[in-house]
Amino acid sequence: MGRVAVVTGAASGMGLAIAQRLAGRGDRVALVDLDGEGAERAAAELGADVAMGAAVDVSDRGAVDAALASVRERFGPIEIMVTSAGFDRFDAFTDITVESWERMLAVNLTGTFHCVQAAVPDMLAAKWGRIVTISSSSAQSGAARMAHYVASKGGVIALTKALALELAPNGITVNTIPPGFILTPMARRAEERGDLPSLEAVAARTPVRRAGTADDIAAACAFLCSDEAGYITGQALNVNGGWYL
Ligand code: NAD
Predict the structure, then answer these.
(1) pLDDT tens for residues 13-50?
(2) CA gyration radius, the chain
(3) Residue 128, CB half-sphere, CA atoms under 13 Å: how many?
(4) How many CB atoms lie within 10 A of CB 1?
(5) Backbone angles phi, psi at 240, to 5 degrees
(6) CA distance 84 to 56
(7) I need a surface site. Which of 132, 153, 198, 203 has the fewest CB within 10 A?
(8) Within a domain: residue 195?
Protein backbone atom coordinates (compact mmCIF):
# COMPACT_ATOMS: atom_id res chain seq x y z
CA MET A 1 0.00 0.00 0.00
CA GLY A 2 1.35 3.42 -0.92
CA ARG A 3 1.38 6.60 1.12
CA VAL A 4 -1.39 9.15 1.70
CA ALA A 5 -0.58 12.39 -0.08
CA VAL A 6 -2.18 15.81 -0.37
CA VAL A 7 -1.26 17.97 -3.36
CA THR A 8 -2.46 21.58 -3.50
CA GLY A 9 -2.96 23.38 -6.79
CA ALA A 10 -3.65 19.93 -8.24
CA ALA A 11 -6.30 20.93 -10.78
CA SER A 12 -3.66 22.28 -13.17
CA GLY A 13 -0.04 22.38 -14.23
CA MET A 14 2.62 21.05 -11.87
CA GLY A 15 0.23 20.12 -9.05
CA LEU A 16 -1.81 17.98 -11.45
CA ALA A 17 1.29 16.25 -12.84
CA ILE A 18 2.55 15.60 -9.29
CA ALA A 19 -0.80 14.13 -8.21
CA GLN A 20 -0.87 11.90 -11.29
CA ARG A 21 2.70 10.73 -10.69
CA LEU A 22 2.11 9.92 -7.00
CA ALA A 23 -1.12 8.05 -7.80
CA GLY A 24 0.73 6.22 -10.57
CA ARG A 25 3.30 4.87 -8.12
CA GLY A 26 0.60 3.65 -5.74
CA ASP A 27 -0.11 6.53 -3.36
CA ARG A 28 -3.63 7.64 -2.47
CA VAL A 29 -3.88 11.31 -3.34
CA ALA A 30 -6.13 14.20 -2.36
CA LEU A 31 -6.21 16.89 -5.06
CA VAL A 32 -6.87 20.27 -3.46
CA ASP A 33 -7.57 23.38 -5.50
CA LEU A 34 -9.50 26.64 -5.62
CA ASP A 35 -10.91 25.13 -8.81
CA GLY A 36 -12.91 22.42 -7.11
CA GLU A 37 -14.48 21.15 -10.34
CA GLY A 38 -11.07 20.74 -11.93
CA ALA A 39 -9.78 18.92 -8.86
CA GLU A 40 -12.81 16.60 -8.79
CA ARG A 41 -12.48 15.91 -12.52
CA ALA A 42 -8.78 15.06 -12.24
CA ALA A 43 -9.45 12.85 -9.20
CA ALA A 44 -12.25 11.01 -11.03
CA GLU A 45 -9.86 10.29 -13.91
CA LEU A 46 -7.39 8.75 -11.46
CA GLY A 47 -10.13 6.64 -9.85
CA ALA A 48 -12.21 7.00 -6.68
CA ASP A 49 -10.24 4.25 -4.91
CA VAL A 50 -6.98 6.22 -5.11
CA ALA A 51 -7.95 9.88 -5.46
CA MET A 52 -10.34 12.50 -4.15
CA GLY A 53 -10.81 16.15 -5.05
CA ALA A 54 -11.56 19.09 -2.75
CA ALA A 55 -12.43 22.74 -3.41
CA VAL A 56 -10.20 24.77 -1.10
CA ASP A 57 -8.80 28.29 -1.04
CA VAL A 58 -5.48 27.62 0.69
CA SER A 59 -5.54 31.09 2.27
CA ASP A 60 -8.62 30.01 4.27
CA ARG A 61 -7.43 27.99 7.29
CA GLY A 62 -10.91 26.71 8.10
CA ALA A 63 -11.28 25.33 4.58
CA VAL A 64 -7.83 23.71 4.72
CA ASP A 65 -8.59 22.05 8.08
CA ALA A 66 -11.96 20.78 6.84
CA ALA A 67 -10.44 19.35 3.66
CA LEU A 68 -7.66 17.57 5.53
CA ALA A 69 -10.21 16.13 7.97
CA SER A 70 -12.09 14.63 5.02
CA VAL A 71 -8.83 13.21 3.62
CA ARG A 72 -8.09 11.50 6.95
CA GLU A 73 -11.60 10.08 7.05
CA ARG A 74 -11.29 8.69 3.52
CA PHE A 75 -7.64 7.59 3.30
CA GLY A 76 -6.11 7.89 6.81
CA PRO A 77 -3.33 10.08 8.27
CA ILE A 78 -1.49 12.38 5.88
CA GLU A 79 2.09 11.32 5.13
CA ILE A 80 2.99 13.58 2.20
CA MET A 81 2.14 17.25 1.64
CA VAL A 82 3.04 18.99 -1.62
CA THR A 83 2.14 22.68 -1.89
CA SER A 84 1.86 23.80 -5.51
CA ALA A 85 -1.13 26.17 -5.20
CA GLY A 86 -0.14 29.68 -6.14
CA PHE A 87 -0.63 32.51 -8.57
CA ASP A 88 1.53 35.11 -10.26
CA ARG A 89 1.11 38.79 -11.06
CA PHE A 90 3.24 41.27 -12.92
CA ASP A 91 3.12 44.87 -11.66
CA ALA A 92 5.61 47.70 -11.51
CA PHE A 93 6.65 48.07 -7.88
CA THR A 94 5.02 51.49 -7.58
CA ASP A 95 1.72 50.04 -8.86
CA ILE A 96 1.48 47.23 -6.31
CA THR A 97 -1.51 47.94 -4.09
CA VAL A 98 -1.60 46.93 -0.45
CA GLU A 99 -4.51 44.61 -1.31
CA SER A 100 -2.60 42.83 -4.05
CA TRP A 101 0.52 42.51 -1.85
CA GLU A 102 -1.57 41.01 0.94
CA ARG A 103 -3.42 38.59 -1.34
CA MET A 104 -0.13 37.39 -2.84
CA LEU A 105 1.31 36.64 0.59
CA ALA A 106 -1.97 35.16 1.84
CA VAL A 107 -2.10 32.56 -0.95
CA ASN A 108 1.52 31.80 -1.82
CA LEU A 109 3.14 32.05 1.61
CA THR A 110 0.44 31.84 4.30
CA GLY A 111 -1.39 29.22 2.22
CA THR A 112 1.76 27.09 2.34
CA PHE A 113 1.98 27.62 6.10
CA HIS A 114 -1.68 26.59 6.58
CA CYS A 115 -1.39 23.40 4.55
CA VAL A 116 1.87 22.26 6.10
CA GLN A 117 0.87 23.10 9.68
CA ALA A 118 -2.48 21.32 9.26
CA ALA A 119 -0.77 18.13 8.02
CA VAL A 120 2.29 17.97 10.29
CA PRO A 121 0.60 16.46 13.40
CA ASP A 122 -0.08 13.25 11.42
CA MET A 123 3.57 13.08 10.37
CA LEU A 124 4.83 13.73 13.92
CA ALA A 125 2.63 10.91 15.21
CA ALA A 126 3.91 8.55 12.50
CA LYS A 127 7.55 9.69 12.83
CA TRP A 128 7.62 9.84 9.02
CA GLY A 129 6.70 12.57 6.58
CA ARG A 130 7.60 14.23 3.29
CA ILE A 131 6.89 17.88 2.62
CA VAL A 132 7.71 19.53 -0.71
CA THR A 133 6.97 23.18 -1.35
CA ILE A 134 6.92 24.63 -4.85
CA SER A 135 8.68 27.99 -4.72
CA SER A 136 10.25 29.75 -7.73
CA SER A 137 13.65 30.40 -9.27
CA SER A 138 12.56 34.05 -9.37
CA ALA A 139 13.07 34.15 -5.60
CA GLN A 140 16.71 33.15 -6.16
CA SER A 141 17.44 35.42 -9.12
CA GLY A 142 15.01 38.28 -8.54
CA ALA A 143 12.50 39.30 -11.24
CA ALA A 144 11.36 42.73 -12.39
CA ARG A 145 7.66 43.60 -11.95
CA MET A 146 7.22 40.68 -9.56
CA ALA A 147 8.25 42.09 -6.16
CA HIS A 148 5.11 40.74 -4.45
CA TYR A 149 5.41 37.31 -6.08
CA VAL A 150 9.16 37.05 -5.52
CA ALA A 151 8.80 38.09 -1.86
CA SER A 152 6.10 35.46 -1.32
CA LYS A 153 8.23 32.72 -2.88
CA GLY A 154 11.34 33.81 -0.99
CA GLY A 155 9.26 33.35 2.14
CA VAL A 156 8.38 29.82 0.99
CA ILE A 157 12.08 28.95 0.59
CA ALA A 158 12.90 30.36 4.04
CA LEU A 159 9.92 28.58 5.63
CA THR A 160 11.08 25.32 4.06
CA LYS A 161 14.58 25.66 5.51
CA ALA A 162 13.32 26.54 8.98
CA LEU A 163 10.89 23.60 9.06
CA ALA A 164 13.52 21.19 7.76
CA LEU A 165 15.68 21.78 10.84
CA GLU A 166 12.76 21.71 13.25
CA LEU A 167 11.18 18.53 11.90
CA ALA A 168 14.29 16.53 10.96
CA PRO A 169 14.54 14.62 14.27
CA ASN A 170 11.02 13.30 13.66
CA GLY A 171 11.67 11.55 10.36
CA ILE A 172 10.08 14.36 8.36
CA THR A 173 11.95 15.89 5.42
CA VAL A 174 11.08 19.34 4.07
CA ASN A 175 12.42 20.44 0.70
CA THR A 176 11.53 22.99 -1.94
CA ILE A 177 11.54 22.88 -5.73
CA PRO A 178 12.12 26.34 -7.22
CA PRO A 179 11.06 25.79 -10.86
CA GLY A 180 12.50 27.79 -13.71
CA PHE A 181 10.26 28.43 -16.74
CA ILE A 182 7.82 25.52 -16.87
CA LEU A 183 5.26 25.22 -19.62
CA THR A 184 1.97 25.15 -17.70
CA PRO A 185 -1.31 27.06 -18.08
CA MET A 186 0.14 29.75 -15.75
CA ALA A 187 3.19 30.29 -17.97
CA ARG A 188 1.08 30.18 -21.14
CA ARG A 189 -1.20 32.92 -19.78
CA ALA A 190 1.80 35.09 -18.84
CA GLU A 191 3.32 34.54 -22.29
CA GLU A 192 0.02 35.43 -24.00
CA ARG A 193 -0.28 38.65 -21.97
CA GLY A 194 3.30 39.56 -22.94
CA ASP A 195 4.44 39.38 -19.31
CA LEU A 196 6.97 36.64 -20.15
CA PRO A 197 9.10 36.28 -23.28
CA SER A 198 8.00 33.74 -25.89
CA LEU A 199 8.60 30.08 -25.26
CA GLU A 200 11.14 30.03 -28.08
CA ALA A 201 13.09 32.94 -26.55
CA VAL A 202 13.14 31.27 -23.15
CA ALA A 203 14.24 27.96 -24.66
CA ALA A 204 17.07 29.64 -26.57
CA ARG A 205 18.42 31.19 -23.34
CA THR A 206 18.11 27.98 -21.32
CA PRO A 207 21.19 25.74 -21.22
CA VAL A 208 19.20 22.57 -22.05
CA ARG A 209 17.47 24.50 -24.89
CA ARG A 210 13.89 23.87 -23.97
CA ALA A 211 11.23 25.02 -21.53
CA GLY A 212 10.53 22.72 -18.60
CA THR A 213 7.45 20.55 -18.36
CA ALA A 214 5.16 19.77 -15.45
CA ASP A 215 6.48 16.20 -15.65
CA ASP A 216 10.04 17.46 -15.05
CA ILE A 217 8.77 18.88 -11.75
CA ALA A 218 6.68 15.81 -10.91
CA ALA A 219 9.65 13.46 -11.34
CA ALA A 220 11.81 15.52 -8.96
CA CYS A 221 8.96 15.85 -6.49
CA ALA A 222 8.20 12.12 -6.47
CA PHE A 223 11.86 11.45 -5.68
CA LEU A 224 11.81 13.89 -2.75
CA CYS A 225 8.64 12.15 -1.51
CA SER A 226 10.22 8.69 -1.60
CA ASP A 227 11.70 6.60 1.20
CA GLU A 228 15.05 6.78 -0.59
CA ALA A 229 15.22 10.58 -0.16
CA GLY A 230 15.24 10.37 3.64
CA TYR A 231 18.72 11.92 3.99
CA ILE A 232 17.78 14.98 1.92
CA THR A 233 16.18 17.85 3.80
CA GLY A 234 16.24 21.64 3.79
CA GLN A 235 17.29 21.61 0.14
CA ALA A 236 16.22 23.64 -2.87
CA LEU A 237 16.22 21.19 -5.78
CA ASN A 238 16.56 23.51 -8.75
CA VAL A 239 14.61 22.14 -11.72
CA ASN A 240 15.39 24.90 -14.18
CA GLY A 241 17.19 23.55 -17.25
CA GLY A 242 20.62 24.54 -16.03
CA TRP A 243 20.23 28.20 -15.12
CA TYR A 244 23.00 29.19 -12.77
CA LEU A 245 21.43 31.02 -9.84
P1 NAD B 1 -1.19 26.71 -12.74
O2 NAD B 1 -1.90 28.02 -12.78
O3 NAD B 1 -1.24 25.81 -13.93
O4 NAD B 1 -1.65 25.88 -11.45
C5 NAD B 1 -1.78 26.52 -10.21
C6 NAD B 1 -3.02 25.95 -9.52
O7 NAD B 1 -3.12 26.59 -8.23
C8 NAD B 1 -4.32 26.26 -10.26
O9 NAD B 1 -5.07 25.07 -10.46
C10 NAD B 1 -5.04 27.23 -9.36
O11 NAD B 1 -6.47 27.10 -9.38
C12 NAD B 1 -4.47 26.86 -7.99
N13 NAD B 1 -4.64 27.95 -7.02
C14 NAD B 1 -4.38 29.27 -7.22
N15 NAD B 1 -4.71 29.96 -6.12
C16 NAD B 1 -5.20 29.05 -5.22
C17 NAD B 1 -5.73 29.15 -3.90
N18 NAD B 1 -5.86 30.34 -3.29
N19 NAD B 1 -6.12 28.02 -3.27
C20 NAD B 1 -6.03 26.82 -3.89
N21 NAD B 1 -5.57 26.66 -5.13
C22 NAD B 1 -5.15 27.77 -5.79
O23 NAD B 1 0.33 27.05 -12.41
P24 NAD B 1 1.67 26.17 -12.33
O25 NAD B 1 2.60 26.75 -13.31
O26 NAD B 1 1.39 24.72 -12.28
O27 NAD B 1 2.17 26.67 -10.90
C28 NAD B 1 2.36 25.79 -9.80
C29 NAD B 1 3.26 26.49 -8.79
O30 NAD B 1 4.55 26.71 -9.39
C31 NAD B 1 2.76 27.89 -8.39
O32 NAD B 1 2.96 28.05 -7.01
C33 NAD B 1 3.64 28.83 -9.19
O34 NAD B 1 3.78 30.06 -8.55
C35 NAD B 1 4.94 28.06 -9.24
N36 NAD B 1 5.87 28.39 -10.35
C37 NAD B 1 5.50 28.29 -11.66
C38 NAD B 1 6.43 28.53 -12.67
C39 NAD B 1 6.12 28.34 -14.13
O40 NAD B 1 6.97 28.65 -14.98
N41 NAD B 1 4.97 27.81 -14.51
C42 NAD B 1 7.73 28.91 -12.34
C43 NAD B 1 8.08 29.05 -11.00
C44 NAD B 1 7.15 28.77 -10.01
Answers:
(1) 999 999 999 999 999 999 999 999 999 999 999 999 99
(2) 17
(3) 13
(4) 7
(5) -145, 15
(6) 13
(7) 198
(8) no
Do 220 and 177 form a contact (C-beta atoms < 8 A)? yes
Closest C-alpha to 187, from 113, 47, 109, 90: 90
Q: Which of 19, 11, 66, 71 is closest to 41 using CA atoms?
A: 11
187 located within any domain: no
pTM of structure: 0.99
CATH number at residue 161: 3.40.50.720
DSSP string, 171-182: TEEEEEE---SE
- Contact residues of ligand 1, CB 6 A cut-off: 8-9, 11-15, 33-35, 56-59, 84-88, 107, 111, 134, 136, 179, 181-182, 184-187
100: containing domain: 4-181+213-229
Name the active-site residue from 75, 113, 128, 149.
149
**116-159 residue pLDDT tens:** 999 999 999 999 999 999 999 999 999 999 999 999 999 999 99
Q: How many domains does the chain have?
A: 1
* Geometric angle at alpha carbon 176, from 41 and 232, rounded to 5°: 115
Question: Is residue 238 included in any domain, yes or no?
Answer: no
Inside any domain, residue 245: no
149 is catalytic: yes
